[in-house]
């Protein structure tokens, strides 16, 4: 009996290891994919934070600070930023996959359901139509949000209160990855007060979740306040994001291709959720998972923007219930239950995995063009060539101001950012931002200014009067000016 149990556990770990290894292998040909502008901004701020610049105060961005913490290991340890960040993104997905495997297993009380959940998370969060190979804030948020679910499920099963505090800690890290993660908090709070125990016991569990949140959030807020960056912290994460949210303008016709690509997983999730109604014995766990899934789904839809990576949050929310399909026994395959599970996994995972295939025989430049169209071809793919031209014709020690929204140039060239802004579009939104930046640039005019082709930003003519910049070369979508 014990020997059979050990063999079964060994086989289970072998299957999970195979799933994780397969997803690493399938993503490897895309590990040279150039970074897009958001990824580059996170990497530049992580680099500069390590060098002493305080986010928000010295480097503006409107994402919460855990994003830069997540970028720190590949930026600080790797010598090739593209490959290192892509490999790190794959390892982050593997960690998320393992967490969701345990969550699916615990929710359904089924090893097969846990494995199916893991397969769906790994495959769909690698889908090209969701820009799954990128390491955006959504991908970062999924690991701590998945941990919040797993810790909550452990708390319900074991009745050990410490798990509730850990769930609060994980939820806080998710919130510090993306503000919309706030929508998963009701899942934890409602579950703590809705099931088992007297009023004091229920409130005690809720307080533990809040304690976990406070354990992370209070030191974070104190750090920025004591560093003298509190007003900039509020400006970036509240003022700017409020304006950003108000600019939602996507139409149904723009969003539908993204939503359509998720219909198969959505159908599987709905079927699994329908099956869950029969499991009344595990009602607290199902309630937690259901509310958590609703929160993640709402977080994906709250902005209604036509950015595919926003909808990565739907994948674990749907996958954790779609994992219940592993308990379905197809009638004509009743005697081959293992085969039926493999068949279900194959049918559900083939669509996202097949989306990777067209990129395998392409260069990294062609890959990024297929993903991002004109932006990929004219900007993301050509940023390394801009750096190469500057290093060869001006010098590696040149001071560079990228008067555009392309911070990848700073990253690839390891250039210092001569302003608070590693990209320029906040200059038109934040009060006094443009004037302050121009004053700083006038005091120390950079050797090189990079603009978009045939575009002269507001204030550029004034810079031409201060220093004799001359257009030296046009590379793709870039103009390079040298004084």
Automatic annotation (TrEMBL):
It is a multi-pass membrane protein. Residues 63-221 form the Glycosyltransferase RgtA/B/C/D-like domain. Coiled coil: none annotated. The chain crosses the membrane at residues 12-30, 85-103, 115-142, 162-195, 207-230, 258-277, 289-307, 313-332, 339-360. InterPro entries: LipidA_mod_glycosyltrf_83 (IPR050297), RgtA/B/C-like (IPR038731). Keywords: Cell membrane, Glycosyltransferase, Membrane, Transferase, Transmembrane, Transmembrane helix. It is found in: Cell membrane. This is Glycosyltransferase RgtA/B/C/D-like domain-containing protein.
